[in-house]
Amino acid sequence: MVSNGSEPDPGPVIGLTTYTENARFGVWETEAAVLHRSYLDCVLRAGGIPMLLPPVGAGYAQRLAVLDGLVLVGGADIDPARYGHSPHSTTVTRPERDEFEFALLEHALAAGTPVLGVCRGMEVLNVALGGTLTQHLPETTGTSAHQPAVATFGSSSISLAPGSRAAGILGERTNCRCYHHQAVDRLGAGLRAVGWAADGTVEAVELPGESFVLGVQWHPEQDQDDLRLFAALVAAARAFRSGGRS
What we know:
9-stranded mixed sheet, two-stranded antiparallel sheet, Rossmann fold, 246 residues, 13 strands, globular, alpha/beta
C-alpha cells in the first residue's frame, strides 16, 4: 500500500497464517479460522497492517501480491511424511494447513517476500527446504522445559550467533517464552542455525543473504514489551514494498 499524500503511510501489509479449528465464540461452536490476538497486536504496534490468511483454497501468488511480509505462526505438528518419517504417538497434524503453508512459503521465497517463522513456522521453513524434525523433544533432551504443561509457556535463555541477522536484532543472548515439543533435527538446504537453548536445541534459523528469512522456535508474540522481531520484519517489509520485489 502507498499513501496518497493526504494521510500518513499506514505501514506495510503483513500476512499472518491462521488455524482452522473447532472454536467457541458468541453463541456459536463451529469450525473457524482463528489466531491469537497477540500476533495482531505485535504487528500493529511494530507499524504494520495485519492481514489474516486462512488455510483454504489456492491463489498463493495473488495473496502474496498484496502482502509486503509474511508471518508463519505457531500451531499443530507438520505431517512427518513430508520429511520421510513415520508419526510419533504424540504428533498431531493438520494436513490442510500443511498444504497451504508449504505452498505459500514456496511462493514467498521465490518472490523475495520477507518471512518470519514462529515455532511451527520455523519448522515449516526447515522442512520446506529439505530438513527434518525431532518429533518429541523430551525423548532427546530428557526434559519438558520447552513445553512444561498444556497451554503453559516455558521460559528459555537463547544464545544467538555473533554476526547473524537474529543477533543483530536481539543481541547475542535473549530470554523468551517457548511452547514446543518438536525441534529441528537436520537443517534444510541453505539454512543456518543461529540460536540455541542451553540444552543445545536449535531455536533460531535463517537464510543468509539480503532477503529477510528468519525462523524462531519460541513465541515472540507472547512478550508485548519486546517488539524487536516484529519491528525488524516490518522494516524489511517496508523496504520490500519500496522496491525490493522480485
